[in-house]
Prior knowledge:
ATP-dependent DNA helicase RecG, 4 domains, DNA recombination, RecG/Mfd, Helicase_C-like, alpha/beta, 40% helix, 26 helices, 18% strand, CATH 2.40.50.140
Amino acid sequence: MGAQLAGLLAKLDIRGPRDLLLHLPLRYEDETRLTPIADVRPGFPAQVEGEVAACEVVLRPRRQLVVRIHDGSGVLVARWLNFYPSQQKQLAVGRRVRLFGEPRGGFFGYEMVHPRVRPVEQDEPLPDALTPVYPTTAGVGQATLRKLIDRALQSEHLDDPLPAEILGDLRLPGFAEALRALHHPAPDADPAALELREHPAWRRIKFEELLVQQMSLRRAYNARRARRAVPLPERGRLPRALLGALPFRPTGAQSRAAAEIAADLAAPHPMQRLLQGDVGSGKTLVAALAMLQAVDNGWQAVMMAPTEILAEQHWRKLSAWLAPLGIDVAWLSGSRRKRERETELERLRSGEVLLAVGTHALIEDPVTLPRLALAVVDEQHRFGVRQRLALREKGEENRRPHMLMMSATPIPRTLAMTHYADLDVSVLDELPPGRTPIRTRLVSDARRDEVVERVRQACLGGRQAYWVCPLIEESEALQLQTAVETFDALAEALSELRVGLVHGRLKADEKSAAMKAFSAGEIDVLVATTVIEVGVDVPNASLMVIEHAERFGLAQLHQLRGRVGRGSAESVCILIYAQPLSQTGRERLKVIYENTDGFEIARADLRIRGPGEFVGARQSGLPLLRYASLEEDGDLIEPARQLAERMLRDMPEATERLMQRWLGGREALLRA
């Protein structure tokens, strides 16, 4: 194989014969039969054979190659808008050809545009199996891929490391049998089962993919437990002091999660735990108790948040809780003045300060944390893989920090079992007392005036409101109400109220000043972009208006809605949508209208968006699963998990062969 072809195949993630075997068809075409031209129907792909009656290049309405084929039953027009001189020769008058394509109605009867064409002899036999169509890239044709895959099928030793009784229990074929059935389906294979990936051969491939993923994650889990970390025994002095000073009692779920984390921190290997809980379930308190366990032992703990607003919010909350205990909290963000920043860095470097909160500024080079024992990452899915790794590596080489990741986007069980199998998970499934349920209203943008009036009445009644917009500047492509425009319009319409504005392009101190004014009740209506999605806590705000709600993801809508309902007043979230709604937009709004439970919303989000989007695979650049689907193949996950543990324990050689077949050295990135 030449270097040029190898480079093109690398774009398809094909680097050797094993990768060719697992490069499976997207769909199949039925070239096993011919359809008389008289019987073709629009919208149904068909293969016809006939003689070229005419072949000419026409120049109007644009340059194109037009060919007429007849087979005795009728005449079909074939049309190519892009063509080469060699194609013209191939379709010379009198030549016999087979065309495969989708017919459509044309000016002179049925026609095919850009059909696949093959010159044939009279009575040339037809293929006896469906023809696979593979994912490809520019410069690599289907014929080339088929030839390479066939060569790999003949030359590779297709061993099957899976125990025969497992295959029997799950009614799965052997590996070689499954591959041959997918690359060369039998003449009697069910085309629908192949197309929908429900064929037993597809089930075998999906099971093996899930099995390898489980093995990789379990190996990561075992490797982590073999590493050293600073044991932080539960002394209880500072956590008890904090709980005693708070004006409320933690929920049962908070106490349970705090106990699980405390036990992990006392172990000599690094904790890697995900703390997930719905909006407002009290994750910050659980994280604070964990950080105090580090301080109680004389070690450092840091909390990293994805936005400046959220980081500052955490810093203020932790400072207010911990100042009475005599504990100082450093705050690091890119916007702090150089001198302030250097002072904080020196205090952390010297060990004078044991707690720090910050944005991704925490993982930048000059930050030295000599006694780092615990790293907390809030809204962990908002950080890329490399950023999470960078924070983990702030600890000393031979002593990894404990990691606590927090997420207010609850992860459905199937997702946790597949993509988070190397994490321990704690769940906050209770809301603190005093949180009021939020009512959700859907309103067409034709009724904006009524919404503005609703905002006026709420604010004149002593309450505050958010008005969220998806963009900052005018975009002709999306024709959306922008934050700046909306701010001007609302300031004019609600002249008796104080209207503020906050968005991502403001300087950090301007954003901070606007948020403080809103928290202090000096602003009645805050017009904002999604910078307020997480971490903003204003109990007096009881009305949330979200403009162009159909453009937001479900997790974002749920997060934004959670900014209200934090006080005792009844809270309402109004979702303004623009017509016409797409099918996905309609589905999303229906889910958010009918549900307030974050787990239910997360399950629907997973169904609508798919797992790659859900867990931030886009930022890591890796597809999490190529063939298996968490929705459709959920019944295979548990058997895959059980078999992974058994094979890792009892069948190390077979495990290694499977891992090489699927991952080929890419395991480290998958684990990150």
